Structure formats: structure tokens, C-alpha cells
Amino acid sequence: MAVTSGFFNSEDGDRMYDADAVNRFFDGFVTEGVLSSIGDAFNPTPGGGLSIVIGTGKAWYLRTWLYNSTPYSLSFDVPDASFSRYDAVVMEFDKLNRRNTIEVIKGTPSSDPAYPTLIDTDDWVQVPLCYVFIGLNLTELLAGGITSVIGTDTPFCTGLVQQADVTDLYYGWEAQFDNWLLGIEDDLAAIETGTIFNELNSIRALPRPKRNLLINGDFRHLELGDNPVSGFTGSPVYPGVASMWAFNMTNAGTWQLSKTSGPSYPGGAIRCEVTTARATLAADSRFMVSQYIENSRVLGNHAGHSTAQPMTLSFWYRSNFSSGRPVVEVYDLENDKHVGDNWDNDTQNVWQRCEFTMPAQTGDTHPNDNAPGYIVNIWVLAGSNYTGGSALTDVWTAVSQTRRGQSTGNMAATIGNYFEIADVQLEIGTSFVRYHRQGDDEVAAEVRRYIEFEEVYRTIGIATDANTIVIDTRPWKVIKRSDPTLSFSSGFAYDGAGYANFTGAPTIVEYLGNGFLDHDRRANAHIAFPTTETVVAGKAYPVLIADLTIDSRITSF
Description:
Layout: H1 19-24, E1 33-34, E2 44-46, E3 51-54, E4 57-61, E5 64-68, E6 72-75, E7 85-94, E8 99-105, E9 124-134, E10 146-148, H2 167-189, H3 195-204, E11 229-232, E12 246-250, E13 254-260, E14 269-276, E15 286-294, E16 311-319, E17 327-332, E18 337-342, E19 352-358, E20 372-382, E21 397-398, E22 418-428, H4 440-448, E23 451-465, E24 468-472, E25 485-487, E26 490-494, E27 499-501, E28 507-511, E29 525-530, E30 540-551
Antiparallel strand pairs: 1-4, 2-3, 3-6, 4-5, 7-8, 7-9, 9-10, 11-13, 12-15, 13-14, 14-22, 15-20, 16-19, 16-22, 17-18, 17-20, 18-21, 23-24, 23-30, 24-29, 25-30, 26-27, 26-30, 28-29
């Protein structure tokens, strides 16, 4: 029957209603989801060991409800012997069997684990509350391994007035605002002490979606491909294990660099393991994992003004080496100052969260340009050039080389010693907020401002003389930080009869577009490639280039 109505008093049993008819009454009054005002809204927290506690809460799905009146504990199966996985904690609404409950859906162990597939039919649904990463050798769940999806993938219920999701609109407004701001900041700088500048500072102080000042802090994006490095002795400083991260090492033995599972997923961790030991460090020995941050990314900390803000650095760390204390250093390159801290690693082979808050810099300014403003260094070993002074503290002081690595031990002394780092975040404020997990496209766009890679590039080139082919590149994926350097593994022009191979370093002949400011460089270029064979000036040639790399990273360590 298409038309129904109710409710009415029954006369001699002529008005009978089932549960679905009663629950149908709420259609239009409330949407499916979690009731945000009831209890803890099912908030998940670690429960000790391989267990989790789901907070109190109430949810509405399939015209039925589920109510959890007390904290509810769930346990997980032990990790797989070879691979990681992650499990789902779900609310199960089952009209076929007339029951609703909360349970664990076990995932499939894999070298690249994925979320479990959940049931979603007209009469039976599994609605995720959180996903839990079960890494190799895991013995205790930590908060960083629990990814809650309450309020995102699993929405909150809305009432009579359906609220719109303005997330996409917000990002659009933010992009428009940033473009406008870039266009007027030079003019505003001339009236720095005026009312407009103060209002601009107030706007900058508002929370922004991209909280992490570091790029690719969860080591997820691999612009140059997933390339573990064997026999690493310090060169190149960017070995390609994780985009944007430098491995700054001198006279510290030989290491294996790779990606591995972290305490949370997606993302992972970087792992560095000694393969050839160095028993005694040289004076200039050092090993630190580093990332430069250009000045234009850190303007929100208001350095040099009365509204200057503190910053907090946080990350996960695990190692089997407990002699000495690793060091975190934040180096202000504009003002030649640094702050830092060190930490114990008494619990070997166990992930620990490290957190360090540095004070505001009211007297040290940073310009709005593309030069390096800060460098974040995580030191694991240092020779006498970097030790012997007092340990770094949370006070900005003039750089002293003998303080930078003070308290570290010689991790390179024994084959098999290793360290792992995950989820590195530098944010404005005095306390750590849950790691800001960006989408893959967002992270890729930030990385490609500095390094962009094209495995196979086909185009048309014009011979400008007997030994030069010039190509007009397709627009680069994002505007570059600075004038880039170009490299490739092989390339050639072909005229149907023979090949003219490319050799030597390509050069940029002419840029074809500009950014808003000096630190937003051209969008693409004419590039000249020298050839080993003679070509005909003025003739067009099909061109193929392998492993074209467009690099504007900061390399002066």
C-alpha cells in the first residue's frame, strides 16, 4: 500500500501497528547517525593491552536505535606474524535478526593494509565508529593508532533543520582569501604598525585547516616512488625514501633507509637501521632527519610582533637503542637561534610520543619570502663538533654548535641498531592536537611545490640549432618555490629514421608564467636539451623523456 497514516486508537483491533510503523514516525525529524548530545557519542579510547573502550552513546539507523549506557570494552586478535592490518569497530544494525550491537570486524593482514569491507544492505548495515591499526609486534593500543570516524564518515544526527556541510565551500573561500592576501601583503607591510596590519594579524590567528607547518609529516607521499635505500652513507641528502625529508648524515657508518608501519594508519614511519657499524665517531659525525620550512609558511606564528605565538613539535619515536638521549632541535635560520629538547628511550622497541613546546619569538622577525626560515632536526648521533656544551632547552638562544647534538649516543656502534619516526607535526599553539591527516591530493600539491617527478614524458620539440632541442613543457602540476633545477635519466628526439639522444644538463630558456610573489615561481618553461646527434634547425620532433625531475627543494645543509 503506497499511502499510510497513523496513529489512531484501535476499535476491536482494527488499528494495529508494528515497530517499523512506530519508528517511521521519526522520518524527517531526525537523520541517521550518532546523537551528539547523548553520553560520550561513542568516543573510542585505549583500554589497555589489545583492547578499546567505546564510550556511552546512542545512534539511529534503519529506523531502529542502539543505546550504550556504560563504557563498553572490546578486544582485538593478536597481530599477524608477517603483516599489519587494521580492524573496524562498528555499530551493527540487523533488522533480519532483530538486534543491534557493537563489535569488531577484523581486517586482512597485508603489506599495504586496507579498511575492512562492511555490510550495507536495506536490512543490515555495519556503521564504523573507528578503525584500529594492528601493527607487527603490537602489544598495547595507543591513541595514535585509533582513527575515529564519528562525525565524518559516520555523521551526527541532525534535527528538523538539515545542516549543510560547508567543508568544500570553506576550502574554496580559503583559497580565494589566500590569493587576495598574497596580492596585498607587500603593500600592507609598508603600514605594519597600522590598524589594518593588526586586523590582518587577528585574521591569521584564526584556526586554519592545514595545521601542520611541516609537509608530508606522516611520510605518506612518495613523489619519486617507493625506493628503499641500501648502503646509505649520507649522499644524496634527499634519498627519496619520503618526500621533503632529508637524511643529513656524515661519518656514521652505513644504513638501510625504508618505510615501515607506524603507530597509526594511513601513513607509516621511516625506519633507519645500521648495516655497517662505526665504533668510534669522528668529530664531524652526525645523523639527523630534517625538514626545512620556508618563511612564507610560518607567518602565522607572528614572530617579531607582540602577538607572536608559541609552537609545538610532536612525533612518534621507536628504537632498540637506549644509550644516550635523542635530541630535537628547531633552528631559526633567519635569526641564527635555536631551541630544543631530548628524551629517554628506556622502553626499547615501543612507540612513544615526543612533544616539545617552544616559546613565542616577539623580537625575531621572518620575512614573507621563499628562503628557509626554520629547520627541524631530529638528532640520533653526533660527534664532538656538536656535543660538549649544555643540552638544548625551551629558551631561544644564539646557535652553539656544541649544544646541537648534546646528550646523543653512538647508535651507529652496532649493526642492527635502528630508529623509526612517524607523524611529525609542527603547529602553532602550546599543546599537541591530534595529527592532522590531509588528503593524498593536498599532500601531493604541497610536496610538488618543491619536487615534481614525471616518469615518462612525451611531447613535441623544436630544433633551434644542429645540437639543441627545445620543448614547451606541459604546465607543472603546481607553481614551484623557486627557479628549479632539471634532471632526467634518458631522453631522445625521433624523426622516423633515427634518434637524437639527449645528453648533459637541460637548461630553462624561458619561463611561461609567474606566481603572485617572488616565492611563487613560474608555472612551466621552455627547456633546452643538448643532443649527441645532429638535428635540423627549425624542424619539429617527437620527444620522449624518462624520469624528468623538477626540483626546487632547499639543499644547503
